[in-house]
């Protein structure tokens, strides 16, 4: 019997096998059968994945028949040998097919030496053989001009409401900033997003939605829903992956002109000294935003007026400086990533060679006519070649960048002389 918990199964399940010892003559073999099957199940979990491979019939009734005949005839040893023979090709194939582990440096041959994988003998003490070195995961909050998710949603909803009003439409919206809570009747395009959800998660059509970024408010709504036996709480949690946030992001993207797209990956700021052409610094925009407190205080944004003449003359120098800066960043990135890229390619070459060897071994034991075997070899070799060419292309595209940066001016910040 297995005991576990739903919703992500936070604990490892405990699996129990019921073994009854009998005093009746001949019934000891029943215990042997159960022990044999239990051992094969453990091996499947560790090395193979599918315990049906052992018997090779892939049918529950046929498996029962095989085990029953072996039990009645007293040939459990023969059954064990047969199961091992059936599983051996699968073990061989899986040993050469650990593409993910090999690519990320956690295969058996890469952990035998232990350590931090740097290859220079430094770092922590070696890990025991066969145990992968733990991978440290780090997360970094992306830079944003908004102090919080609520700040982004509040500003974006205001912009959407203005867009709809210009088209003669009205957004049914009420905002409660102090509680970081809002109520909205979903427009048709937002409602369509909910229609893709399971039925039990879809709000009734035309019903106002109540959302909040406060976990405590959501907890109270959940408790009230349980007390009232409702399947859906009256309040939804407003977070980064909520349908409303995705809808606002898409709404923002369609405001771009034709043949434009938000492909910006690096915010770069070029800072001039006064109105001249002397460049003081080229730096990440995040540094400028932090220094000027952008997003945390109001700044004048005068539109419709002709910009000062010195800004136009500075534009060409700003583009040149930004282009040089990004090219340097690209060269540094390439130099830093090149060793790892070559290591990934070498892992792919080794894996490819192992799969080709395994193909030849499997064909060597194949008793079919040579013409059929040759056709199988060509088909499987083509599949191997295609698979690894795709992997190498993917690795190269992920770990390399275009040497020519694409630049687009998105903002000009200046202050009036005082």
Give the gist of this structure.
This protein is an alpha+beta fold and 418 residues long. It folds into 3 domains: 14-95, no CATH class; 149-253, no CATH class; 268-399, no CATH class.
Mean pLDDT score, rounded?
A: 76
Instruction: Point out poorly predicted stretches.
Output: 1-7, 105-127
Strand content: 5-15%
Count of DSSP-assigned helices: 13
Helix- and strand-based class? alpha+beta
The oligomeric state is single chain
Strand line-up across the major sheet? 3-4-5-6
Main beta sheet = 4 strands, mixed
Total count of domains: 3
Describe what you observe in this structure:
The protein has helices spanning 28-48, 52-55, 60-73, 76-95, 99-103, 108-111, 149-166, 188-195, 215-227, 243-253, 285-292, 309-364, 370-399, and strands spanning 2-3, 14-15, 173-176, 181-184, 209-212, 235-237, 268-272, 279-284. With 418 residues, it is α+β, with helices and mostly antiparallel strands. The protein has 3 domains: 14-95, no CATH class; 149-253, no CATH class; 268-399, no CATH class. The strands form 3 sheets. Strands 3-4-5-6 form a 4-stranded mixed sheet. It has a two-stranded antiparallel ribbon with strand order 1-2. Strands 7-8 form a two-stranded antiparallel sheet. It is flat, with a radius of gyration of 32 Å. Mean pLDDT is 76; it is low at 1-7 and 105-127.
List keywords for this structure.
418 residues; alpha+beta; 3 domains; four-stranded mixed sheet; two-stranded antiparallel ribbon; 13 helices; 51% helix; disordered N terminus
């Amino acid at each position: 019997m297995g005991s576990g918990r739903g919703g992500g199964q936070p604990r490892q399940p405990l699996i129990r096998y019921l073994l009854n010892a009998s005093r009746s003559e001949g019934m000891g073999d029943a215990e042997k059968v159960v022990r044999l099957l239990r051992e094969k199940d453990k091996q499947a979990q560790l090395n193979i994945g599918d315990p049906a491979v052992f018997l090779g019939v892939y049918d529950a009734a046929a498996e029962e028949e095989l085990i029953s005949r072996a039990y009645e005839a007293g040939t459990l040893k023969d059954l064990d040998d047969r199961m091992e023979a059936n599983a051996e090709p699968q073990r061989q194939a899986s040993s050469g097919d650990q593409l993910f582990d090999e690519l990320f440096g956690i295969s058996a041959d890469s952990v035998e030496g232990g350590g931090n994988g740097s290859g220079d003998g430094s770092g922590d003490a070696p890990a025991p053989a066969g145990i992968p070195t733990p991978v440290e995961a780090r997360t970094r909050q992306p830079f944003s001009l908004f102090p919080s998710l609520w700040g982004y949603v509040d500003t974006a909803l205001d912009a959407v409401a203005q867009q709809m009003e210009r088209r003669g439409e009205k957004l049914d919206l009420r905002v409660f900033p102090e509680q970081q809570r809002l109520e909205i009747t979903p427009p048709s395009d937002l409602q369509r997003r909910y229609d893709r959800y399971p039925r039990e998660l879809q709000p009734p059509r035309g019903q106002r939605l109540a959302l909040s970024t406060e976990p405590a408010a959501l907890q109270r709504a959940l408790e009230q829903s349980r007390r009232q036996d409702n399947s859906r709480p009256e309040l939804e949690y407003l977070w980064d992956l909520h349908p409303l946030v995705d809808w606002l992001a898409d709404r923002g993207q369609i405001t771009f002109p034709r043949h434009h797209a938000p492909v910006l990956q690096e915010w770069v700021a070029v800072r001039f000294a006064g109105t001249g052409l002397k460049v003081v610094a080229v730096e990440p925009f995040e540094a400028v935003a932090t220094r000027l407190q952008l997003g945390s205080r109001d700044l004048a944004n005068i539109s419709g007026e002709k910009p000062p003449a010195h800004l136009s003359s500075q534009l060409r120098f700003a583009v040149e400086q930004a282009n040089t800066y990004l090219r340097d960043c690209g060269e540094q990135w390439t130099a830093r990533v090149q060793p790892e890229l070559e290591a990934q390619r070498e892992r792919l070459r080794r894996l490819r060679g192992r799969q080709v060897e395994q193909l030849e071994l499997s064909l060597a034991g194949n008793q079919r006519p040579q013409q059929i075997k040759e056709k199988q070899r060509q088909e499987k070799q083509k599949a191997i070649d295609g698979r690894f060419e795709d992997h190498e292309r993917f690795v190269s595209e992920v770990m390399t960048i275009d040497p020519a940066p694409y630049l687009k001016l998105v903002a000009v910040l200046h202050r009036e002389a005082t």
